[in-house]
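Retro notes, structure queue

What went well: the backlog is down to a handful. What didn't: a couple of records were mislabeled last round, so from now on we paste the full input next to the output in the thread. Example, using Nucleobase-ascorbate transporter-like protein from Medicago truncatula:
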Amino acid sequence: MEAPKQEEVYHPPMDQLHGIEYCIDANPSWVESIILGFQHYILALGTAVMIPSFLVPLMGGTDGDKVRVVQILLFVEGINTLFQTLFGTRLPTVMGGSYAFMVPIISIIHDSKLASIEDPHLRFVKTMRAVQGAMIAASSIQIILGFSQLWAICSRFFSPLGMVPVIALSGFGLFNRGFPVVGHCVETGIPMLILFVAFSQYLKNFNARQLPILERFALLISTTIIWAYAHLLTTSGTYKLRSELTQYNCRTDKSNLISSAPWMKIPYPFEWGFPTFDVGHAFGMMAAVLVSLIESTGAYTAASRLASATPPPPHVLSRGVGWQGIGILLNGLFGTLTGSSVSVENVGLLGSTRVGSRRVIQISAGFMIFFSMLGKFGAFFASIPFPIFAAMYCVLFGLVASVGLSFLQFTNMNSMRSLFITGVSLFLGLSIPEYFREFTSKALHGPAHTKARWFNDFLNTIFFSSSTVAFIVAVFLDNTLDYKNSSKDRGMPWWTKFRTFNGDTRNEEFYTLPFNLHRFFPPS
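Corresponding output:
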């Protein structure tokens, strides 16, 4: 038997991902861009509704308060997305709400000074102001690290090998938001998962006027079909005798968003009153800001890959972190009840649609701002049951995780050093947060449980994040274990040319600031 040729068994590493229909600075037609932008908006609704739906009732808020928080969050998300795509990294990333802030926010909710307030509405408002104050203070971390270029200096210690677990676990680490939520309503969740995969993968070659309509708009089409199916099940009385939890997850009329939403209201800063400041609350929130920084660093790198761009240089990455800090400051000023980070699910949608256009994401930001002001219309779309969103996450989080694994092509995986760092950081990145979650669910407090509440919040927040744990382990091992003789194994010969803005001519095309602003803020 003839030996296979070298090109038949070897796939050369590629700086940019091939197969993307529209890269970062290429644009589909305006009609297609608007529909794709609306699709990103629909996907962003999942997190924007889930976080307030969980936190607002704990604070004593009503359905009206929940709707208002959702609207404000979407409004600020739209502004932050525009800032990030125009002046930050300039990558096609939606800046959404972050689960990294849940631990310190829940700690503030359970603060004895606030929890003892008997009037529910007053407790909600006082708690909201405390969260706002902590977020405003903590946002300074990212603003300083970003605009001072300190994060650019730190990022010079990153390598393809060290970034693999960080990017991979920005997807894999969110497994508890996938099928466990689908299982809350299998009648709609599983059909949504099957339909989304069928349209986006198996029927992707179906064209209408030379447009792969099922692949490009798979999320929008499958969501519409399953949402209509869920409404049919609701109106037919299928869930009347089911448990309250099942009804909440399956019915299309249990969120009370539409009935509680105003027809039109424009969000504005300090809507809940002037923020209150507490040093302990601020320290706990700073941990969440650091976590969102690390998670977003991985997501930015994944987005660059799925937008068929080169990896963002340290200067660009740091610039994006600075603007992300501005975004968290806006979260605090407006009262969104959570901070900002890159929406991982929307990064995954870039790959699913094979459209990495910056314009599409900017259009989605316009939809966020527009529908956040038109309350009833926005609430209508936001009433999609959570298991439908979770079914999308099963695909999109996995896609982002695989982008992280694809960076292994630039490393030497025949090296025991590379195998050790990759395996240990991936395993601990999944195992340690799972331990923290299990401990918390049983003991009703995190493993860090001392009299210093701020210290508890700081540690528990850090180790609840898979990406953050993987980042700590991978970067430490990669920079201490046989460091001097491992440059090639780490993938540094490929990575080096992207460590400076002028190291690759494509950087100027992808990351230069608009309106000739680069003349005033020259790249380093």
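Agreed that this is the format going forward. Reviewer comment attached to the example: The longest strand covers residues 95-97.
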